[in-house]
Amino acid sequence: MAKTALRELARQLEVLNDELSALHVTIGDRPPDEAALVDQLEDAVLNLMALTPKALINAREAGDAIGTPVDPAQLRRSLTACQVSFQRVDNSFEAVYLRHRLNELVRFAGTHGGDWVPWANTTIEAIERCREDVSRVRNALTVCWQEAAEFDRMR
Question: pLDDT tens track of the chain, all 155 residues?
Fold first, then answer.
């Protein structure tokens, strides 16, 4: 059962990685005007894109520890490393979400008009999808830790 939970964790991290890439593309499709707020948002998303693969690698390593024979120490080390890596992603995403409040994007788009309004709406939708994915990864990590604890109790 722990193997299934770890596969789901890796899958959720892959989905998050894909959504962050899609968000980056959306940000890049902005109107041609220079905008510091948008540049800061793009830099923050690039940072998230750099952090997420490490958590995914750690999740896969944890899955590899559930082989024959099972290596409980490696499972805990890899799951801990995944938790630490994902915590960086989670904290960075929350900083992006709070720093670039969605209403700031709306306000910015409203004052600049034109193509900025549909761009802001699309960007906000992409940010919200990423936020949901971050939450799913958080939940998947919780299930993995519960499974790991159960695995230890069975030994």
Answer: 588 999 999 999 999 999 999 999 999 999 988 788 888 889 999 999 999 999 999 999 998 888 778 788 888 999 999 999 999 999 999 877 776 677 788 888 999 989 999 999 999 999 999 999 999 999 999 999 998 887 667 66
Q: How many domains does the chain have?
A: 1
Phi-psi region of 8 (alpha: psi -120 to 50; beta: other; left: phi over 0): alpha
- The amino acid present at 105, given as its one-letter code, is L
pTM assigned to the model: 0.90
Domain interval for residue 114: 2-61+70-154
**Could you tell me the CATH number of the domain that includes residue 74?**
1.20.120
